[in-house]
Amino acid sequence: MSTALELLLGAKGENSVASLIGKWRVYISKQVDALAQGGLILPDYGWAKRASSDQAGVTAPTSIDLNVVGVTRGISYANSRWTLQPSTTYLLRAFGYFQNFSDATGGFMDVKFTDDANNPLQVGQADSPQGRFRPNTSTAAHSTAAGLEMIYKTPADPNSPLCIVKLRIVQGSGSADVPQNGFMMTVEEIPGGV
């Protein structure tokens, strides 16, 4: 069986893959060959949530333990950490809420995406967005649902702690509970990303 490139080269007598038309033909042939082999280019992704019980009495600093993995493809999740592919761009999203703040009037929990060394992820000169969670009112010791998201490119070194990401409470006042079904995080590869 001929490859798509061989068919494209022979179609008009084009012998060079260096010309503009040749480069286009190489690109098209790779895409067609991938399709013919069932190899569509699909992005990696993952989704996990806090599901089986409350993570009670958390204080800062603490990683949020998302203890049930819903789905994952191409990346792994274990021990509250996503292990991402090197030199890849991802969209990170997290949504959730806290309950049972020990300080219903002034309590808060600040959450960020961090690396394996507990440092906020960096994008250029800016670090991870921060989600601040505080009680709705002085009489309701739970927060409203909120979220954070960012685009993050991993370094080229697969052994870098920057290829491992997690959701972490970086500062707060008092304690609170991460309720069952109260937090979730998604990781989605952005093909051809920045």
Number of DSSP helical runs: 2
Strand residue percentage: 35-45%
Number of domains: 2
Task: Specify the structural class.
Answer: mainly beta
Rounded Rg: 23 Å
The biggest beta sheet reads: 6 strands, antiparallel
Rounded to the nearest angstrom, the distance between the terminal CA atoms is 36 Å
CATH topology of the largest domain: Jelly Rolls
Element order, helices and strands? HHEEEEEEEEEEEEEEEEE
Contiguous runs where pLDDT drops below 50 for at least 5 residues: none
Shape: elongated
CATH class category of the largest domain: Mainly Beta
- Named CATH architecture of the largest domain: Sandwich
Tell me the helix content: 10-25%
Averaged pLDDT, please?
82
Q: State the total count of DSSP E strands.
A: 17
Can you tell me about this structure?
The structure is a single chain. This protein has 194 residues and is mainly β. It folds into 2 domains: 4-36, no CATH class; 45-189, Jelly Rolls, CATH 2.60.120. Helix content is 13%, strand content 42%. It contains 2 helices and 17 strands. Strands 3, 5, 6, 8, 11 and 15 form a 6-stranded antiparallel sheet that branches. It has a 5-stranded antiparallel sheet with strand order 4-1-17-7-14, with no helix packed on it. The longest helix is centred in the N-terminal third of the chain and has 17 residues, at 20-36. It is elongated, with a radius of gyration of 23 Å.
